[in-house]
Structure formats: structure tokens, C-alpha cells
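Worked Example 4.2. Consider the chain below.
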Amino acid sequence: MALAIQWQAVLNFLGAYLISSEQPRSADLILVLAGDFWGPRVVKGADLAVQGYAPLALMSGTPYQGRMDGELAIEFLVKKGYPPRLFESFGHNSRSTIEEAMVLRPELARRGVKRVLLVTTAYHSRRAGIVFRLFCPGIQFIAIPAPDPQYHPDDWWKDPSSRKLFYSEWSKILATVLIVYPKYLLERAVGKRPTSLLISAAWQQERCGSIPTTHTIKAE
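Applying the procedure from the previous section yields the following C-alpha cells:
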């Protein structure tokens, strides 16, 4: 019985570890990651902006039905009464958190930000923080999780949705830290073009110019 209780405590710890919750602090920018243009993630970012933690919330977004979902997020928030001056949309074609970090890195550098509130879904917050700190060095990222009913860190193994998210997030964290990032560092060291198309594009931008898959739109 004692062993079972200890094992359950370990599992709960691993489940809770996926949620990185830091105290919001004054920052240069609020960055809301792509993937939720009408839910808790964008509302959390908007609330932080209204509370004055940063002068702007940048809505990262990928294409959705012919438009960038960051633009759709801003429209959603403005309809809810949030001031449009608080938001800008940054569109791109990334397919993963790592690609999103790499595509955003030049934009963050262009803005000269030093501290960023990183807003994403709760279960994604630990991995997002790890990824952005690894691939966007020189910037302090403060993880701010938005609530998500799909994931329950306590007794996660009893719930199919939570179990799926747990295995997915942990496998991606381990792959990032043990495989992708070391490989990326090695490719940079030898001057080899990275394998991923969008990481490759960001790499190319650092070397010789702009990247055509991204654009920033200010809310009117």
C-alpha cells in the first residue's frame, strides 16, 4: 500500500510538472502562442495586457481558413470589449512549438525585448518555456498558463484526454532536450542548414535576410 501511494505521488508530480506557472511581472511583451484564437489562451493574454503587465500582446498565429488565426483572435477580443490598441498579430506557417520559436526569434530581436510573458495552454506551458528558452536565448521568458479543461494533472492516468496529453507532452520534452536541440546546436556549429523547413528558413534569415512566411499586423 505504501509503495502504491508513493508511486501515485510520483505520477501526480510528473503530471503537475507539465504546468509551469510563474508570477506575472512587468515585461516588454506578452506573447500568446498559436493554436487558440477564441478561448482561454487569448483571453489570458488580453487580461494581462489590460492589467498593464506589458504594452502589447502579440498574437502568434498560423493560417486558418484563409486568414491568420492571430487576426481572428484580435477580432474575437475586440468584440468582447478589449481595446484593439493592445494587440498585434504575427502570422507564420510553423507546424510545431520549436518552429514557432525559431520563426518568432527574429521578430523578438527586432523589437528588442528582454522579458516576455509567454502565454499558452496550461499543459503546454512547461514545454513551451523550455523550447523558447533554448531556441531564443538572451530573453527572459515567464510562463503564464491558461486554464484548459482537457488536462487534469492529478490522477491524469485515469482520464483518457489527460493521459494522451501527458504522454504527448513528455515525449516532446524529452525529444526536444535530448535530440532536437543538440542536433540543432551541432548543425549550427558546422554551418549545416537545419533539416526542418521553417527552422531552416529562420536559420537562413539570420544569415542573409528576411523570411517571407511571416508578417505582423496591427489592430486598428
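Residues 17-146+213-218 form a domain with the Rossmann fold fold (CATH 3.40.50.620). The first strand starts at residue 29 and ends at 32. Compare this with Example 4.1 before moving on.
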